[in-house]
UniProtKB/TrEMBL annotation:
The lineage of its organism: Bacteria, Bacillati, Actinomycetota, Actinomycetes, Micrococcales. Belongs to the KAE1 / TsaD family. The gene is tsaD. This is tRNA N6-adenosine threonylcarbamoyltransferase. InterPro entries: ATPase_NBD, Gcp-like_dom, KAE1/TsaD, Peptidase_M22_CS, TsaD. It comes from the Bacteria. It is an enzyme of class 2 (transferase). One of its GO terms (molecular function) is tRNA N(6)-L-threonylcarbamoyladenine synthase activity. PANTHER family: TRNA N6-ADENOSINE THREONYLCARBAMOYLTRANSFERASE, TRNA N6-ADENOSINE THREONYLCARBAMOYLTRANSFERASE, MITOCHONDRIAL. Residues 22-314 form the Gcp-like domain. Binds 1 Fe(2+) ion per subunit. Required for the formation of a threonylcarbamoyl group on adenosine at position 37 (t(6)A37) in tRNAs that read codons beginning with adenine. Is involved in the transfer of the threonylcarbamoyl moiety of threonylcarbamoyl-AMP (TC-AMP) to the N6 group of A37, together with TsaE and TsaB. TsaD likely plays a direct catalytic role in this reaction.
Length: 345
């Protein structure tokens, strides 16, 4: 089926078009620049930017795919989780589009969409069961995906800051611009990750009892802040490269260790990575190393499919159709806290 997908859960206005698992268009407008001076995504600014960007982005996607509106078999849209106001813009537009075209609409889960992105990576399409580690500015989740359209389980998630958020906050206290992830990656080049042993959140035996697959990054952020303050108070220069490398190592050490442990302990031979933090050079390196050592197949879709996009939402919609699932009824709304087990709203 030819499906157009709309994604507006955060700061990317994404419109994608797929035919089954074939990617025809993946168009993205981002309001990232508008948030830069605030050091993070401002919900009202994001919602307004979606409102302005959606129509041109839909047009551009149709042109990119060389299809016209009346050829579409269905519309898919992210209904949650995400920023309520931002989600509402996409949901409203998708409903209007579906009703005016007389096609079914599929309201889908953003996090499961991230997993569905892997279907479009044609070199070797998604296989299940798989463990999925999703890391971005808004979430840090470890999933067990037994079946993409019918069986997704949340193994763990962050209990405070998301990993990308931690990168953004630590970059800020090191005087680096937003978004902080790529800045820290760059600053860490030439730094020694062994200089400072920053804390690994929720890895102590007593924490593991309750939080086996959960993450925590706010203690790490505080530890970096304190370390930097002490250096400054002593009148010593802050070795930015070493701090960046040591911080990055602490984050990716925990992410990769818990993800690979989940594969091993649950007997799942593959691990899928998704979300904007997957751009991190050290995360890719350490994940590859540890997966190989554990005999686990590591899958990393291209970055354009890892960050928020409409193509992954269209791909999940197409899977629901091909799996014989009924469309969503028009009563659905934006649900900022939609649980990952609800694949379709
Ligand atoms: P959502 O959580 O809904 O997916 P988002 O817009 O916050 O939304 P993405 O756009 O997928 O998420 O990712 C952005 C985040 O990824 C930012 O926090 C950014 O700092 C982080 N990031 C980007 N590149 C890197 C990198 N090289 N290393 C670490 N973090 C990175
Ligand atoms: Mg984003
Ligand atoms: Fe996302």
């Amino acid at each position: 089926p030819l499906v157009l997908g709309i994604e507006t859960s955060c700061d990317e206005t994404g419109v994608g078009i797929v035919r089954g698992t074939e990617l025809l268009a993946n168009t993205i407008a981002s309001s990232m620049d508008e948030h830069a001076r605030y050091g993070g995504v401002v919900p009202e600014v994001a919602a307004r930017a979606h409102l302005e960007a959606l129509e041109p982005t839909i047009r551009q996607a149709l042109a990119e795919a060389s299809v016209s509106l009346d050829e579409l078999d269905a519309v898919a849209v992210t209904s949650g989780p995400g920023l309520a106001g931002a989600l509402m813009v996409g949901v409203g537009a998708a409903k209007a589009l579906a009703v005016s075209l007389g096609v079914p609409i599929y309201a889908v889960n953003h996090l499961v969409g991230h997993v569905g992105a892997d279907l479009l990576d044609t070199a070797a399409p998604l296989e299940t069961p798989t463990i999925a580690l999703l890391v971005s500015g808004g979430h840090t989740s470890l999933l067990l995906v037994r079946d993409l359209v019918s069986d997704v389980e949340l193994l763990g998630e962050t209990i405070d800051d998301a990993a990308g958020e931690a990168f953004d906050k630590v970059a800020r206290l090191l005087g680096l611009p937003y978004p902080g992830g790529p800045e820290i990656d760059r600053a860490a080049v030439g730094g020694d990750p062994a200089t400072i042993r920053f804390p690994r959140g929720l890895t102590k035996p007593k924490d593991l009892e309750r939080h086996r697959y959960d993450f925590s990054f706010s203690g790490l952020k505080t530890a970096v802040a304190r370390w930097v303050e002490q250096r400054e108070a002593a009148g010593e220069p802050v070795p930015v490269a070493d701090v960046a490398a040591s911080f990055r190592e602490a984050v990716v050490d925990v992410l990769t260790a818990k993800a690979v442990d989940a594969c091993r302990e649950l007997g799942v031979p593959r691990l899928l990575l998704g979300g904007g933090v997957i751009a991190n050079a050290r995360l890719r390196e350490l994940a590859a190393e540890r997966a190989a050592a554990a005999g686990i197949e590591l899958r990393i879709p291209p970055l354009s499919l890892c960050t928020d996009n409409g193509a992954m939402i269209a791909a999940l919609g197409a899977q629901l159709i091909m799996g014989g699932h009924e469309p969503s009824t028009l009563g659905f709304g934006a649900d900022s806290t939609l649980p990952v087990t609800e694949i379709q709203a």
